[in-house]
Amino acid sequence: MAVSSASGAVSVPSQGGRAGSPPPREGRAGSPPSPERPRCEPSAARSDRSYLTELRLSAFAGHRRAAFALGPFTLFAGPSGCGKSTALRAYEALARLAGGAGVGEAFPDPLACVPERARPDAQRRRGFRIGCTADGPEGPVRLDVAVQAEPGLRIVGERLSADGVVLLETALRDPSRPWVQAAWHTAGQSPVTRAPLPDDRLGTALLPLRVAGKTDGQRRVLAAAEQMVVALRSVFACDPRPDRMRARMPAGSGRLHGGCDNLADVLRRTRIECGRRHAQFVAAVRAGCAGPVADAVAEVMDDGTVRAVLDRGDGIRTEFGRLGDGELRYLALSLVLLTGPGVLEVDPVGEVPQAMQTLTVLADGFDRGLDPGQRGEVVRLAARMCERGHIRVVGAVSDASGVAGADGVTVVHLEP
């Protein structure tokens, strides 16, 4: 998979080993930091928020030894079949694992994740490897995960590390048992603690239930794990479906679904609760839809359903069902960018204040169905919202000609 970025080549570190084997070693689990290497401590230069800065696809579907730098607003660009959607799928899978989902839920079609040319080992095992880096108060924290897809789906290796020290490491020791052997940094009387962890869950997400936090080493493990989980969990996978957005929906919770089919219900809520954001949304609608627009309104019908309409300002109201696919996708993306975790259907980390969380929107087909004007408007809106730090966007576009060089946009060019 050839990779380049708008500013030059993206480095692709070599990571040997068979797909499905444990991640490459970075250090010895339980080893305390060397005297020459100070422990990572929060500093004024570090953000109080946690967010991903890199996505690694060491061996995943069509990607091998790939590392993608992620900015506040990142777009994967390239022709069909180059792996744009695959990269977003890997990101979403990591987010699900961090939220406590089982490996089967995170990878519903695991064989599609195995590199096509991967050969089984002597035990007829094949798998894939992915990882990421999260920055935040603890500095850069790395997570690498090895998943066995056949003969059975399970997590066979995991490594959480920071500042060159392995804080958690797991490995499959006995294939007949449904667990892996885990070792995490202690730095107390015993430099490392060992215990079994289930092989169908991400060990990093389970650490708060297993680590007491009595020693400096344990507290460091917990802080790094929390940073990684917080960075991954607040994800909203968005792919607006115009065919579903045209149907009237019953009034509900007012939280937007990933397919944006309940856009009318959410519009009704946001118009009541936040006049400033609604005014910004109307301005975006006016810039991307044909004809005059005075307002965007949600109406509750006699049967309890909700419909969304454009108020043309001359007594005419156009139901959203009459709009084109491109207009509907544009409206949905604009609404997503102008709202937040309280409106989007995401699973935020309840123990961490929202002011210290960053919502990441995953938008496959970010430019699908949009004309050049709509694409430019939604890109500018996304860049403006990402600049504030409360939201990040990772999307996929087929054509980057209209966004390459735009302020605040990182473009990763992929080739088949």
TrEMBL record:
<keyword id="KW-0547">Nucleotide-binding</keyword>
<feature type="compositionally biased region" description="Basic and acidic residues">
    <location>
        <begin position="36"/>
        <end position="47"/>
    </location>
</feature>
<dbReference type="InterPro" id="IPR027417">
    <property type="entry name" value="P-loop_NTPase"/>
</dbReference>
<keyword id="KW-0067">ATP-binding</keyword>
<dbReference type="GO" id="GO:0005524">
    <property type="term" value="F:ATP binding"/>
</dbReference>
<feature type="region of interest" description="Disordered">
    <location>
        <begin position="1"/>
        <end position="47"/>
    </location>
</feature>
<feature type="compositionally biased region" description="Low complexity">
    <location>
        <begin position="1"/>
        <end position="16"/>
    </location>
</feature>
<protein>
    <submittedName>
        <fullName>ATP-binding protein</fullName>
    </submittedName>
</protein>
